[in-house]
Amino acid sequence: MTSRVYKALFDLGVTEAGCLAHARRKFHELWVNHQSSIGEQALKFFIQLYEVEREVKELDLEERRRIRQLKAKPVADALHAWLAAQRQRVPDGTATAKAIDYSLTRWSALTRYLDDGALPADNNWVENQIRPIATTCS
Whole-angstrom Cα distance, residue 49 to residue 44? Predict the structure, then answer.
């Protein structure tokens, strides 16, 4: 399994940078499949985070980090607090709990990009590049 390979890399000192697209997808599925109000509200937070990313796309690394701290960090902090509050209200084992738990358990990795202008908020491109290596090694 590829997750085993990723975990082995982390054990070797590779720093995990999470992917907002993966976290967002969980809430999108809640909204599409269940018309979940929690899914819909979470998507509104992700929209704001991606709006900042569109704004900083062409900036140099330091300016990107600065704008992320100014505009995206407060949104991420609000999302985290909101997720923690929502998690208290939903039963374990539900699709909603799983979506929330996915983000909360990976929060440090998901928000690592806020402190580093070189890191993408969404690492789909990187994952697609290393997937052949990870699947070969698993």
Answer: 9
